[in-house]
Amino acid sequence: MPQRVRISLDAMGGDHGPSTVVPGAAIARERHPETTFLIFGDEAVVAPLVAAEPRLKGAVEIRHTTYAVAMDDKPSQAVRQGRGKSSMWKAIQAVKDGEADAAVSAGNTGALMAMSKICLKTMAGIERPAIACLWPTVRGESVVLDVGATIGTDAEHLIEMAVMGSAMARIVFDLERPTVGLLNVGTEEMKGNEAVKEAARLLREIDLPNFAYHGFVEGNDLGRGTVDVVVTEGFTGNIALKTAEGTAKQIGTYLRSAMTRTLSAKIGALFARQAFRALREKMNPSRANGGVFLGLEGIVIKSHGSENAQGFAAAVDLAHDMARHDLMRTIREMLDQTPTLAPA
Amino acid sequence: MPQRVRISLDAMGGDHGPSTVVPGAAIARERHPETTFLIFGDEAVVAPLVAAEPRLKGAVEIRHTTYAVAMDDKPSQAVRQGRGKSSMWKAIQAVKDGEADAAVSAGNTGALMAMSKICLKTMAGIERPAIACLWPTVRGESVVLDVGATIGTDAEHLIEMAVMGSAMARIVFDLERPTVGLLNVGTEEMKGNEAVKEAARLLREIDLPNFAYHGFVEGNDLGRGTVDVVVTEGFTGNIALKTAEGTAKQIGTYLRSAMTRTLSAKIGALFARQAFRALREKMNPSRANGGVFLGLEGIVIKSHGSENAQGFAAAVDLAHDMARHDLMRTIREMLDQTPTLAPA
Questions:
Q1: Which of A92, A146, B42, B136 could be a cystine partner for A130, CB 3.0 to 4.6 Å?
Q2: How far apart are CA B163 and CA B167, in angstroms?
Q3: Bridge-partner residues for A29, per DSSP?
């Protein structure tokens, strides 16, 4: 476990760029004072922001870059134009070169994944990388993957994700043997597509020491926290994630409207304002911000492009935890313990 | 438009059977007094319940059945054992025989779909039936399909669903030209799997008179009500639906807990009790209960198995509306206007 955690930051990513990234890093460093940052971006913008943050004193090295990947660049275009020189590429390269333990970017997801694959390479034994997030549940949090790295899946890919997601859950939740569920349209054996049915059969058979296969889970098990790790294909996972975010917003709208409709409701809202504040904090998506790229030869964290400094800090926290508790080694060890899965 | 609407009911379906089905029918009939019911089930149980409901007086014919499909029967098993004699089969058969304009069952979804396909047959021009639901949004409601009839899709199937979902939206929302979106992981043209990309290309090209193709929508557009009809593959649609239901429950749990934690919050909740009641009613899944089977030669509605009488009544309302406004004719007309879609 490295005592110091060195995090490289793409300062130019996201809707707000350095004005969010630098204060976000400062907030995270207050929680983890052993962190240092290597910040890639336009020095003329970044340096004054860093100088204005006493919490970052002595903990930052700025590397000037002149090219930034745009939020709407196609991944292929971003790679062609930004390879080797963009702030995003250089933040990833720092991980490859051993100058940083993890990279964080709020930039274009597709570009970040494409560059990470080219620069860091996929881990031996992993077919395709995945993006994992922390999903808030009534019991705490679960790891959910894939929420958008890939489209389409097969049984082996689902099992790889079960292994990688469990490695992340062991670190984040400090669990010896996290429980793993496959997201499906029902819990009976015959339900679902071929990929989940085959993956379920294999997971029941192999019975690994590092996680416990629970069985199928459904969409409503996500918020319940039925299992520690939920595995699904990226198309469905991304839609489930955004559906949950949308539903939370929708209910927030209903609640605000209900609480302002009558005088009595307004008085009630006044008495309950502390309670509403706690609720708002609980439902704040910034708290759980950060997608962990799993399956690469290095740690890369994606922050939401629209997050504020608090949200970016949550993504930096995640990078810190993954690096400090050596996610890479945990995944490698778990992969070594997984028998080769020949398709039936 | 038929003046009288005749609905056949499977009294033995769902977790509560006739004790929910009969009062549910009574509640719906109060709203639509022109409705009559043909109820299939155990006469010894059904008859006293009907006799106890003044709102059903003179509007019910009971047909005794001795076999009920179990909630956990496999569809193939249910068909083998229940064909021709179960209350579920007979309710569907009544539609086929012209004795009823629509059938409603709270029974086993897989069995209900399998029996409906065998008994009623799939419509000419439709590859596979779908299940559509009404999704509550901040703007009202949207039609969302498929929420669980099929697994996997292709471009033609998605376009069939766009046509059928629009027919349903025309009736339920009384719209001339509903807007239709394809559920995807992003709104850019290059996003998604081959099926949605190809369907999008075709929908942009054909430009039908009866609905307006909006483009891709994402998971968070569901609660926003961005479009009147959201089309997706059944695996993803089912998971999105259950994820939204789960998220709503989760937030309800947070809210209850926040409102009971301190004295001040409790006082606030007391003042706001009317507002909370309105909110609870708004979030009540029973209000939007009922899955419409689209693409069959007849109208079949699935009620949630765990619904109470109010929920079952909502499903009966849906059956009433679909029959009264002639869903079958609307779908047929719209299919006739859709050029044959040869894959590119």
A1: A146
A2: 6
A3: none
The per-residue b/e assignment along A103-112, b for 16 or more CB within 10 angstroms, e otherwise, is bbbbbbbbbb
Interfacial B residues in 180-219 facing A (CB < 8 Å)? 183-185, 188, 190, 192-193, 218-219
CATH of the domain at B227: 3.40.718.10
Q: At what angle do helices A234-259 and B234-258 cross, to 10 degrees?
A: 40
What does the pLDDT look like over B183-194, one tens digit per residue?
A: 999 988 888 999
Q: CA angle, corner A297, sides to A305 and A174, nearest 5?
A: 75
Q: Are residues B85 and B196 in the same domain?
A: no
Q: Residue A73 sits in which domain range?
A: 1-126+296-344
- Give the CATH number, domain containing residue A37: 3.40.50.10950
Please state, in angstroms and rounded to a whole number, the distance separating the CA atoms of residues B117 and B96: 11
Q: Which residues of B touch A240 (CB under 8 A)?
A: 219, 239-240, 243
B205 shares its domain with B106: no
CB contact under 8 A, A262 and B249: no
- The one-character DSSP state at A190 is T
Are B241 and A219 an interchain contact pair (Cβ–Cβ within 8 Å)? yes
Q: How many domains does chain B have?
A: 2
pLDDT bucket at A340, cuts 50 / 70 / 90: low
ipTM of the complex: 0.91
Closest Cα in chain A, distance from residue B60 (Å): 35
The interface residues of chain B toward chain A in range 103-142, judged by CB-CB distance below 8 A, are 136-138
Question: Measured between alpha carbons, how far is B113 from B121 in angstroms, rounded to an integer?
Answer: 10
Q: What does the pLDDT average to over B78-91? A: 96
Q: Tell me which residues of chain B, numbers 280 to 299, contact chain A at a CB-CB cutoff of 8 Å.
A: 282-283
